Batch of 3 targets.
Target 1
Amino acid sequence: MSKVLVISGHPDLSHSFTNRVILGELEEAIAGVRVRRLDQLYPDARIDVAAEQQALLEADILVLQFPFYWYSVPALLKKWFDEVLTFNFAYGPEGDKLKGKPLLLSLTVGGPQESYRPLGYNHFTIPELLKPLEQLAYLTGMAYEPPVWSHGMVYIPEVYNTRELVEARARDHASRLIAAIRELQQAN
């Protein structure tokens, strides 16, 4: 069975109503999944590069789980990219350590789907906004898989959504993500 590594880039899972649910569902459904919660491992943002690179080497499938912040990844996950995906590890003449490994993005988007289109509030589609992460996969030699995302994943008490609604959306998101992972496991 393929080893699945999930890098959780949420900056504070204790305050998440969706990413926490998604991770819990993954841990229940995917045998042997390994979840690295960056917020818990590195509350001071001092990343253990050797440990992270070793986790990547041991994985067959990489999943990045994160909330979509300012059309990108949260700062801690970006820092993880900067420090872990180094020259001659992830790219460069000897940087083939991730080559061929599937990369699956799983993101929660606060805004509604209709706001992510050319004439919408955000002007761009989610796939367009994910191009830098797609390029990250290409540069590192990973196989960029179709991402999994869900809209309306923010709960603001008495303002936007209900907790029950976003948690239900998170369970649905997790089901789609689990199906995508299982498909990759069967292919590997």
Target 2
Amino acid sequence: MSIEIQGINKFFDKFQALHDINLTIPDGQLTALLGPSGSGKTTLLRIIAGLETPESGRIRFSGRDVTDLHVRDRRVGFVFQHYALFRHMTVAENVAFGLNVLPRKERPGKPEIRKRVKDLLEMVQLEHLAGRYPAQLSGGQKQRIALARAMAMRPEILLLDEPFGALDAKVRKDLRRWLRSLHDELHFTSVFVTHDQEEALELSDQVVVMSNGRIEQVDTPLELYGRPDSRFVFEFLGQVNVLSGKIRDGVMSQGDAWIRLPEGCENDDAQLYLRPHEVRLTQSASDQAHLPFSIEAINLIGAEVRIELKPDGWECDELWEVGISHTEFNARQPQRGDRCFTVPDVGHLFCEHSPEPKTLEWR
């Protein structure tokens, strides 16, 4: 079931939480609402669910206007960050709760409820815990029970508010894989809120980046990471190295640092954004770039070695970061305090007087 959001505005007293939100969430896709705290993503999710009412705008499910429908009539499942399980009920009773409180005319018979609960617990691989209470479960198990409870009502849309935020890193990663696998199997339409960039890029089909109650960009994870539309999206999505300077005669410079730009870059004040994997660490400057650094820190944990660099002879608000392989690290043995240089392979140029960023390649 697709979701169409048209011209949604929301106020809390005099504060405007959402500004003219227009968005289409395709049928059967997993969509992430991504942004920092206060960006409006949870408010938008609650409006989709019917838990909040907008001042203006419409919500449609596959063309059907549900703006004025009560939450119980929208066929929406909602999973909260902190599980919201009933402590005095067993796992099975928690999953069955929504079915048991339906009006008599809509309520399935007890055998049907028991069968549905059993099937759902098997789906979340926790049928052996049916008789336990929430206090006897781990965080990951509680979240899977919350998901089973939401799906017991056979919702047409599943909404999740920071579903993995209360879990430790390993459990969070395992549950992400599990939810993605479940979604691919059942093909329901899902929307989840997160401030975790890695989570959004890894789990979703479509990412909606929000800031200050507005949508900054809507795209696939690959396009969003590779071709951000704005400085905000670039800076919010992962580590980025930034060179601010002036372009004159095809060369961008700031202090002792300079980069020779490809043809077509006009004279202007600009910022060049480079991801850590888009620059190479070298022992000397090249004809295309003179970007001097001293090594500030070395992080050997992970699939690659992360090296933090302090600009030498030019100003930058933050340290740069470059990733190299363990093989390259072992061969070169760089040390903290060493002088080095970087050479860009790909960059993204934001000019003061140009609304669109330009992707540059030096390869």
Target 3
Amino acid sequence: MLSIHDGEIQARENDLDAAGTFTGDGVVADASVTHHDALLLPGGTVNPGRLRVDPDAVSFVHECVGSGKSVAAICLGPWTLNEAGVVEGRTLTPFPSIRTGLRNAGADVVDQDVAVDGNLITSRSPDDLPVFCDTLVT
């Protein structure tokens, strides 16, 4: 698990409720795509909002997508994909509030539980977690 900063990571449930803390395995600024098999971008509003404005996180996402490794994003996670400039011509299924922004960036936005386009795997919301998780592990 990578973080944009050193120290513990505060997990959240429903964006508002604290759900424990975790120690990251490293800082994204120091991470190498070659040391990771895949990338899972978190959902919610807080984490995607912070990741998409962090230049190191955006660069890492861009490199991961370009490497061909699996990159998965749920809920508002595709915000960072958009910021990384990797959504044009790709089929994505995000949370409704960011669909227009992704369409404006050239993505083909669909409304289904999961969308797989090459190495990108996206899903709309926590309601889609069962099929999203099944897709990740297959």
